[in-house]
Fold each of these.
Amino acid sequence: MTKAELVEQVAETTQLTKKHAELIVNTVFESIVESLKEGEKIELRGFGSFRIRQRGSRIGRNPKTGDRVEVPPKRIPYFKPGKELKELLNSDS
């Protein structure tokens, strides 16, 4: 599903215009991104949680030349699905 399809579905479900539905979807995504930037954990009960994981620096290789390259530390977003979501995905129905 693309963001446009999500906006379309929100508009149909809520009987709002696509413009209003797009504003809602964008606000949710922006809120998640801002919270992650601040280092906060986001928990959506029944769906899952978003966290930031810290990756340390390491030595990598340039695939073209084979030279060793230092890869700096970075923060990576991580999604952990909730129990209910896992159960829904793995149910037989």
Note: The chain has a mean pLDDT of 94.
Amino acid sequence: MLKKLTVICENSVGSAKKAVGEHGFSCYVETDSGNFLFDTGQGAGFLRNSSVLGLEMTNLSGIILSHGHYDHAGGLVEALGLAAPVKVYAHPDIFADRLWVGEHEHLDIGIPFSRKQLEHLGATFDLSTEFREIAPGLWLTGEVPRVTDFETGDPHLQIEGASGELRPDPFTDDCSVVLDSEKGLVLLLGCAHAGLVNIIRHVLDKTGRDRIYAVVGGLHLAPASDEQFAGTVSALKEFRIERIGVGHCTGQRRSAELFSKFPQKTFFASVGSSLTV
């Protein structure tokens, strides 16, 4: 059962804490079954922010990676330095080569370490494509079916094919965390590359529930079309979501729009913010 979420790394710092913001995401998850780390940011602020926030990393029950991008797994070396040996839960495709492709540049945005390096530092990888429960009341979504026609993804995010051609990243490894709480299900997102509505429908199908209490993290709405944004807003209403913690790749404009539509429900999931249930 979930007790509390605390954001360690995010693009901004929302209060007068001696913490730092960075492009990335990491969240500390406290449950009745132990404490887990969800993502690690890109590595610039993980150690400082964890210390400032007083979060205990030496006895983690596990580390969970949402997908294979540097801004979610770049701080893994720092986390392992505190928590190893520790099990790391993720999808088998997290070590794929990833690119951000713009008009004038190609950026390598994959995990900046090899599996061998991380295992040498004390990581034991537990990789699966399936929806699974890794602790009582804590599930990982595994691969999420794409069922909506409006969640088309970000065309700048690409991978290299076998013949060297570039193609859209399918993000088979995009994984979110589902937590049971006294108020209902809480959905914790890294970047929601599979599409927030797709993820919500997948979670409800797998859990047999009919609503989600809260969604927190990166909703990846910064590059979303107006159609996708409208579809997302409709889903948030349809599934009676009561708390919406927006951060990271949600984007400032879309975050502000969500706040204007759900002013009593939305909060900014910046460094140091928390959700207690």
Note: The radius of gyration is 17 Å.
Amino acid sequence: MKKIALTMIFAGATLMAADGAALFAKCAGCHGQDGKTKALGKSAQIAGMPAADIVKKLQGYKAGTLNQYGMGGVMHGQAASLSDDDMKALADYISKLGK
């Protein structure tokens, strides 16, 4: 019985883990499916950026303290609902794009 309970807990946690690919769907409209599009013609491409840099930028946008390329307002709206786990999963996914 304990094994079944532990298996169910682990499976539930796995299903609830943030999915970087699914989270990226709302980013792809501006950054492209491959992350190589300059958002609104202003930003740098994000594909292949180091995950730690992406997390730091997302945290800045969420906090409203980053306005890189004049995109602070747009990105604040996009990052506002992201949890720390979401940011890590998204950053991991983006860092592997184009590789």
Note: Confidence is low (pLDDT under 50) at residues 5-16.
Amino acid sequence: MDAVSTRLRLRVSPGANRGGVVGRYGQAWKVRVAAPPEGGRANDAVVRLLAETLAVPRDAVRIVSGQGARDKIVELTGIDETQTERRLSSAVRKEQVS
């Protein structure tokens, strides 16, 4: 059986005061990470943030496009598009409450 995978468009804001999922940004999701965009640290932070938010292992999150840009495409393994959207939306709601 083939593993489920989903591609996700992101707009990343590195160097933020705190990380989190902000909400929609056109067709993408906007996320903030505290790590600076130097030496791949922001990309690592994006992978950690998504893995934690989506409750998937880190190795299930892979940046496939935009490693050096704010606009990225991430491939997620083991989670479908519906679950991804639901979990990201839930993270936004939690962020707005805190």
Note: The two ends are 40 Å apart (CA to CA).
